[in-house]
Protein 1
Amino acid sequence: MDGFEWNKFAAGGLLAAIAILVAIILTGEMFRVAPLEAQAYAIEGVEEEGGAAAGPAVAEGPSLAELLATASAEKGASVFKKCATCHTIEKGGAAKTGPNLWGVVGAKHAHVAGFGYSAALAGKSGEAWSWDALDAWLKSPKEAIPGNKMSFAGISKPEERAALLAYLNQNSDSPLPLPKVEPKAETAEAPAEGAAPAEAAPAEGAAPAEAAPAAQ
Ligand code: HEC
């Protein structure tokens, strides 16, 4: 075979390879399955990943009261830098994009008279900003009070929110007392366990006492 023949062979092989490639691409395209955009059929009680119904199996961290008990207002002051573009904190401070925040912990929602609050926030003016309400607000303003106009994504770390709350609470004429830390279930049960041997003790001691009169 001369060189020309070899070239024909090579060209034939190349063509075959290209044909196979094209076939693979085409069939791949044909059988490509578009990813589901939503659950194809709803199963009752089952929410999408990360939803509330994900189950109580997720270990709960310390409660807000526990976090507040050890929260550092000093750290909170540095977290407040995220807020300072829109809020002043000092007494009588001016409104920026958001209202002045002096004394907001424990105050009613929409607590600054004359500030142009959204209808969503103004609608809650009968309710006080409790620790829990503020914590939820700072975690995700959008979820806590839908329709409000504070363009802030939220602070995901519970410790950071607690520190910030401690700082906000300090900046007030009448800081709220910290919430009570509920005793954990284990510590509440502990005395009951300790009581068991104490009950058994008199019973054992009583046996010889009963026997004594019989011996006389
Ligand atoms: C981009 C500007 C912006 C940032 C950043 C921001 N806020 Fe706000 N904030 C607002 C606005 C605007 C409102 C009023 C919302 C409404 O009326 O719906 C508001 C309202 C509030 C309120 C309710 C006040 C009241 O009188 O009821 C609190 C509390 C608050 N912000 C705390 C914070 C804290 C703490 C931070 C920092 C973690 C923060 N905000 C960051 C703009 C902002």
Note: Confidence is low (pLDDT under 50) at residues 203-207.
Protein 2
Amino acid sequence: MKRTLMGTLAVVLAGSLGLAACVSTPMGGGGPPMPVASLRGSDTAAPDQAPVVRDQLGKKPGLQDKIARTFVGQPPMIPHATDNFDEVSLADNQCLECHGPANYVKKSAPKISDSHMTSATGRKLADADMRRYACQLCHAPQFDAKPLVDNAFVGVLPKK
Ligand code: HEC
Ligand code: HEC
């Protein structure tokens, strides 16, 4: 009994010594450290640069075409500018002042879809469900900005 315990302790001790050895030996055997680069390109020690402020591509609502969707179930992109609207708050949601069921006709705006007026339990609601209240969690305005990372995305549209 005593013997096995000592044996186990020896194995554990050997294991932790091995681990300590791994941690203290840098990979590559002590060569110069690899330079660290971030996507934003700044020296990690330099103060962070404020992001460039870019103009939105869209103008006042009512002046542009809808942006084609690229896959089924995509939240449509916002074609108009949004930077002159107030922030969405508990008391105020300018998006709904045009897109909500009470105003969309007089504002000539596309109405939020029925999915937005359905509760989590499937009940039909008279206005947007709270899960859909923060529109820009899903709908994005458009900027003239180069993608940070190149990509080869092509949409998948339903077969006709
Ligand atoms: C003054 C009225 C008005 C306000 C406020 C407004 N919109 Fe719009 N929205 C429109 C109109 C009109 C269109 C149709 C395209 C156009 O003419 O710009 C539109 C189009 C859209 C579309 C595209 C729908 C589709 O089927 O392609 C989305 C998404 C959208 N708006 C989201 C928003 C969000 C989110 C907000 C709040 C940040 C907002 N809108 C505020 C009037 C408005
Ligand atoms: C959780 C994500 C989500 C949120 C939040 C959300 N939407 Fe949407 N929206 C979608 C998706 C996905 C679609 C397309 C599928 C559909 O119609 O349900 C859509 C469709 C739309 C459309 C096009 C309707 C049509 O008939 O083609 C409008 C307009 C719109 N949303 C406006 C809004 C506004 C305004 C808000 C905020 C009050 C909002 N959405 C919040 C995901 C979202």
Note: The pocket of heme C (ligand 1) is lined by residues 61-64, 66, 76, 78-80, 82, 85, 94-95, 97-99, 107-110, 135-136, 139 (CB under 6 Å).
Protein 3
Amino acid sequence: MSARAALLSACALSMLAFALSASDKKALPWEKNRLASGLALYRANCVVCHDIDRPPAESKKLGPSFYQLFRQDKMPLSGVKPSRDYIKTVMQAGFPPIMPAFATTLNDSEIDLILDYIQSK
Ligand code: HEC
């Protein structure tokens, strides 16, 4: 590769890096669609028992509020660190005595969409 070609490709790479770093500040169109789908799934399956726009002190639902969950050190009830793996396990297995299992009603990609939505709040 000539020095000129090397310089040009280095330049192109840095422009690409710049474009990518600038774009991750805003949600990309397909990310917005993912969050909208996650919101719809959350509303259909979770919001009846778990607030997400209301801090725990203002929530009167049966289950704990997931308000800004991923910014907390601990899950409200179990006290473990909030993680996608943990919440996914609870969704699949349920959490006695009240929280139902969703293993037969939500597939992996639906669970992922719900997790993206919870994590975005
Ligand atoms: C019928 C009400 C109900 C629905 C619907 C429900 N949950 Fe729950 N959930 C609860 C209750 C109540 C608890 C507390 C444990 C218990 O008493 O069963 C709980 C606990 C949890 C926990 C554990 C919290 C912790 O601190 O460890 C997670 C995570 C969770 N739910 C996620 C979800 C998600 C995600 C959905 C939607 C897919 C959902 N839940 C739907 C009632 C519900």
Note: The pocket of heme C is lined by residues 45-46, 48-50, 62-64, 75-78, 87, 90-91, 95-100, 102, 114 (CB under 6 Å).
Protein 4
Amino acid sequence: MTSKRDLIIAIFLMIIFLITGIVCYASFTPPVPDNEPMRIMFQTKAGKVLFTHSAHSFDYTSDCLDCHHLTSFPPDFDCSGCHFKEGDALMLSREDAFHDQCIGCHDDMGAGPVECNECHSL
Ligand code: HEC
Ligand code: HEC
Ligand code: HEC
Ligand code: HEC
């Protein structure tokens, strides 16, 4: 037999857990910047590359700075701001920066395309 008092305590606890859950969810879900692209289609002379930006930034890693490294404030999301078309001894070209970062991570994680035509497929 559950007494009325036990029932009240149970309901009280349930409400506390619910509120804790909502507060935790609200405080730990990172804010989504509304300018973040869903996907980017890179036009290259080797064939187009489709990059699922949102999947990469939410499912494959959660840190923008993994890719947008050394960015300034306000953030500069364009790799070309530093990695110019022609590279030199100090700075990778845009093409090498992309290849090193994209293929490097796929290699490290053992997932994602590493062959030319798996990326340049369109
Ligand atoms: C993980 C995906 C990926 C793989 C694998 C890959 N690429 Fe790329 N490639 C890119 C991206 C992204 C760019 C940069 C596009 C840009 O600059 O906007 C690029 C740029 C290029 C460019 C420069 C084209 C231009 O218009 O300036 C060439 C050439 C190229 N890749 C050839 C290759 C070759 C050859 C291979 C295999 C040895 C290869 N890529 C493998 C994603 C990839
Ligand atoms: C897996 C790598 C990766 C991650 C993680 C990532 N990005 Fe990006 N993002 C890119 C690449 C590559 C580009 C294209 C840069 C270029 O064309 O020079 C880009 C472009 C952008 C752009 C510019 C789009 C445009 O059209 O100019 C914004 C804004 C951006 N990212 C925001 C973010 C934010 C915010 C996060 C974290 C929530 C994030 N990115 C995480 C790789 C990444
Ligand atoms: C604010 C300038 C700046 C921007 C923007 C920038 N980089 Fe870099 N990047 C550098 C400098 C400086 C180096 C060389 C020093 C170093 O390795 O940290 C570098 C080195 C790299 C390297 C060599 C390995 C490493 O991590 O050190 C890769 C790969 C790379 N960048 C990819 C990218 C990609 C892809 C983007 C765009 C998503 C990008 N970078 C945006 C300045 C920048
Ligand atoms: C931080 C690590 C990381 C970086 C950097 C990264 N990737 Fe990926 N990528 C992954 C992982 C992990 C997968 C595999 C996901 C799966 O198979 O579930 C993947 C899958 C992919 C796929 C196939 C599935 C899909 O979502 O489209 C493509 C295409 C791709 N990556 C392109 C790129 C390009 C182009 C770049 C550079 C601009 C890049 N990736 C940079 C981790 C990364």
Note: Residues 28-32 have pLDDT under 50 and may be disordered.
